[in-house]
Amino acid sequence: MIPDKIIERIFSKDKRAVSRAISLIETGNSYSTELLKELHKRIGRAYRIGITGPPGAGKSTLTNQLTKFYRKQNKTVGIIAVDPTSPFTGGALLGDRVRMSDIGSDEGVFIRSMATRGSLGGLSKKTIDAADIIDAAGYDYIIFETVGVGQSELDVAKAADTTIVVLVPESGDSIQAMKAGLMEIADFFVLNKSDRPGSDSALSALKTILMFREHTEKSWLPNILKAVASENTGTREIAEEIAKHKNYLEANGFLKTKREEHYKVRIKEIVEHLMKNELWREHRAESLDASLAKVVEGETSPYEIAETLFNDFKSTIK
Ligand SMILES: Nc1nc2c(ncn2[C@@H]2O[C@H](COP(=O)(O)OP(=O)(O)OP(=O)(O)O)[C@@H](O)[C@H]2O)c(=O)[nH]1
Ligand SMILES: [Mg+2]
Predict the structure, then answer these.
(1) What percent of the chain is predicted at pLDDT more than 90?
(2) C-beta of 202 in contact with ligand 1 (< 6 A)
């Protein structure tokens, strides 16, 4: 059974219930799917913002400032800080907690750190489930913060309505970002730490790269905004750019299609997950182990074993 009154408590924005529900999905509790089904009825009201970029670019500082900005407008904010490298909530996340301590005690702010090592991509299924819980609780904004290492930063765009890529003026950073495919996912860029030398040349380098981006009349052109997050400079402009992008998506019906696309990817993942569980039931896992010696000896090939296992799987689902 789903824990008593947890759904009602989530709907009434009870932070402890939200936190408890996220723990349930994190541990893979058997009620978590039922819980998510129930919560889905109240989903879709939160606007989801992804903030990604290289380590130390100022993502947490910016998240903090943006949250304070929204709070002044009486909007509530849920933050999910994703650490794709650490299996523990230590190290970098401890830093986050310190930097975000002043908003953490605010009733209208919910903060959760999630480690996602072991999953494919930085934003695991569980991270998105967690966002759904926060959404159902009625928070106005959800901010995903993910460190841009490897594949993780590309995944954030599959979960966010607006994706912001934070860069710093340090040499080569912008070029590196373009290579890593951040160009495709950024709805706009923030050149943070603009108090540092080289920010003007970094800005013009970025602008030049973006000029060559293919576009049509209707396409959204990613902007570049300068910011000094540690001094709260540029926060308003960033919030305005988010609003502009949101309006663009809504006015053209793109928000709906974007969310449909996200659900498509997600539903496929869930189906694949269910299939995997079914496929590797005990007897097939054992049959696989039993065949390995023969494969090594050359008596049979990996393909034959795979086909046998797959055919057995097919016969059980007919
Ligand atoms: N000079 C300067 N320092 C900044 C600025 N923004 C943030 N910082 C500092 O940069 C350091 C890293 O900031 P964070 O906000 O933790 O950066 P992050 O991108 O969240 O870092 P990770 O989550 O570890 O990848 C901190 O010491 C901040 O105080 C800025 O605009 N200018
Ligand atoms: Mg951070």
Answers:
(1) 58
(2) no
Query: What protein residues have CB closer than 5 angstroms to ion ligand 2?
Result: 59-60, 96
CA of 58 relative to ligand 1 center, distance in Å: 3
What homologous superfamily does CATH list for 43-252? P-loop containing nucleotide triphosphate hydrolases (3.40.50.300)
- Report domain extents, the chain: 43-252, 280-317
pLDDT grade for 121, boundaries at 50, 70 and 90: very low
Tokens representing 303 are 């393909």
Output the CA–CA distances (angstroms, integers) from residue 67 to 81, 103, 134, 306, in the order listed.
Answer: 13, 8, 15, 51
- pLDDT for res 74: 97
Beta bridge partners of 143: 49, 79
Report the pLDDT value the prediction gives residue 68, as an integer from 0 to 100: 96
Does ligand 1 have an atom closer than 6 angstroms to the CB of 90? no
Pocket test for ligand 1, best of 61, 83, 99 (most atoms within 8 A of CB): 61
Report the C-alpha gap between 236 and 227 in whole angstroms: 10
176 pLDDT band (50/70/90 cuts)? low
CA of 195 to the centre of ligand 2 (A): 19
Asked if 185 and 154 count as a contact pair (C-beta separation under 8 A), the reply is yes
Ligand found nearest the CA of 194: 1
Regarding the beta carbon of 65 and ligand 1, being less than 6 Å apart is answered no
Q: What does the alpha-carbon distance between residue 49 and residue 79 come to, in Å, rounded to a whole number?
A: 10
Q: What pTM was computed for the model?
A: 0.89
